Amino acid sequence: MTGSGGVERGARDARARALAVLRVRSWALAVALLPAAAAVILLVGGSTGRLAGGGWDAARWAVCAVALLVLLAAAGVALVVACARPAVTPTVEVSEEAAPDLYRMVRDLAERLAVPAPSAIALTPDCDSWLEDRTHRSHRPRGRSPVRVEEDDVAGLGGPVRRRAATAPVLVIGSPFLWWMRVGELRAVLAPVVAGTGPSAHPDIAAARRFIRGLDAAAAVAGAQERHPLLRALCAGLGRAVRLMLRACRDHAAEMERGVAAAAAERAQAVDYGLRIVAQEQVGLAYAGWDRLLTRVALPAWRMGRWPSRLDVGVVAALTELSRRDRLAEGFASRLAERPACDLLEEPGVADEAVSLLAARLFHGGPAACRPDWSPVEWSAYPDEVVDRTWRADAARLHRALDTLGVRRPAPAVGPTLARVLDHLAAPTPPAPDDPGPGAGDPGTGTEPYGPSRTEDPPGTESSSGTVGEPASDGPSRTAGEPASDGPRAEPGSTRASGDAPEHEPSAGRGPEPGSGPGAGGEDGAARPPAPGAGHGTDPVAASAATPGPDDHGPRAALLPVTASGSGEGGYGDDDDDDLAGTTPRSAALAAGLAAQLAREDLGTARGSDAGAGGSDAGFWDDRPLPLVPLQPPRTGREILTDHVTAMVCCAAMDTAGARPGLDWLDGPSLLVDGVRVADLAPRVHALVESGDCAPLRAWLTEQGIRPDKPVRLV
Questions:
Q1: Pairwise CA distance, residues 641 & 686, whole Å
Q2: In 495-584, which ranges are continuous DSSP H helix?
Q3: In the chain, pLDDT over 70 holds for what percent of residues?
Q4: Which of 156, 164, 240, 709 is 20 to 30 A away from residue 626, measured at CA?
Q5: For residue 464, how far is the Cα from the chain centroid?
């Protein structure tokens, strides 16, 4: 609804809420000056002889001392609020020389909307677009002054005309939009976002946002740990004062951002309104495809120390495949004949590579630059360099866990085989020591999970860990039913190993657990629900594009700080008690051993990443732990064991039946038998892991011509 004089109603509401935020600042200043005012009154009364006497003298000294302390505290809080560095969303900046057509389109859009043009454009590995204020001096690139626009009452909000310089915010665009959307669709989607620069430039709204960002940054400073005891006490007082003001501003700030979003949406209705409705379908499709690509395709590569260098190209392939499979999306593939929005960039490949590396940092916590253990990988090499290596590494880890439990091989000279895994998981639980029963410890059975120490491999043979000439575990003998002394306990629900990385809570904003083996997919991955980002120091301007409105495409995902453990690869803790309750004791013990190994590997990887980073970009990341946005919660023990058994089956299929590793754009790593993707392996592996029933899996192996008794090659 538009008010008198062409002023949007939402803009007027936003200005009223901004004034309420500024009144909180004024009230805080008044409270800080109140003791000083009382001291001035007492001093003036004493100098004029009206407040004379010993009692008034004592009151003057006491009030002056209190006033001095309050003024010093208020000055310290104000200094921290003014100088604290607000958090900034990690993005890839796009210069005008690198994308002149994109800048020209945005400026033309701003001119049609009668609002100031954004000062710069940046890309983010997320399916959203927003405005972000980076006027703080710590956020400006060296040698560059902020872009300013001179406006008379720039937002048209009435009242006295104010002549001042307003700094335009930065337009942040989700990179998947550039590669999947057409030029017209991108223009329609960006219209309500660019329209937000008008209200953002109003002096009252800009001042209110600066105040809130300063409070948020000061709260982060007050919450920092590992300080001197005296500094901790001062930070505690600072934190209480800042949180009190934030609570007073919270409701007004939220309503202010809603008003800004409503005003921007109303102003943008005049530009490409009909096309914007159609473009919303592409926004949802891009979000679903991007989430599937990250969780099911990119994450396995990141765990192997490789990062796909063309993620945005991959999302186009994933969405095209989704369009082919979904009959409701048959018309989407025909859009590919139109001009993609990435043509607005001079070098799309360079931008895609930079965004891909940033995505690996945000979602996995990888290093900031390439190095021997962190190198890019092309999509054509993904099956051989990622899928094959992942499966063989998991299979090697599985056999190391079996070695720790004392499970011997069918024959001393035979290398790692799938039969060893099947026999161990499918064997019945060993009887008690006082009643060994028939056939207990019989070498002819080929399994001895809890029996005497395993016979060492002769030199020159390949051990279960994949190394040549390495002897197996030669620990002391164990009685039946006793776990290995040097490995994790065999009871289900055992706690994390001592070397485990710290566990973080699963967030509702993460995607579903992807299936890392063939046949695990089929159901569509759910998109991560959004969360407000104001609590993490991001610019409140972002909320103008995040508040639901008639022309908005949905809020963006917040950057949630988590522990440095990142992917949660070794997530096996107390929460796995219920998860492993329905499995066999052998599965639970093996899952515990695998989780302990993963925890130790993750801890070593995190330390190596911290040592190699060198702290060169610590300021850019605001000293927050990486990854900022983990893709999924830690895997449970059941999921870890299932993935490793699946990997061992795939290795046996490749080495004995001529199968090949493959890449499915929606389901990730897949096994190809005679060029056809295997889709029926997952339920058979689940039956083995959960109930010890190996008959379905053995029947499938026989049908595919896979020899479980033949040794396989491991890494």
A1: 10
A2: 542-546, 576-579
A3: 67
A4: 240
A5: 35
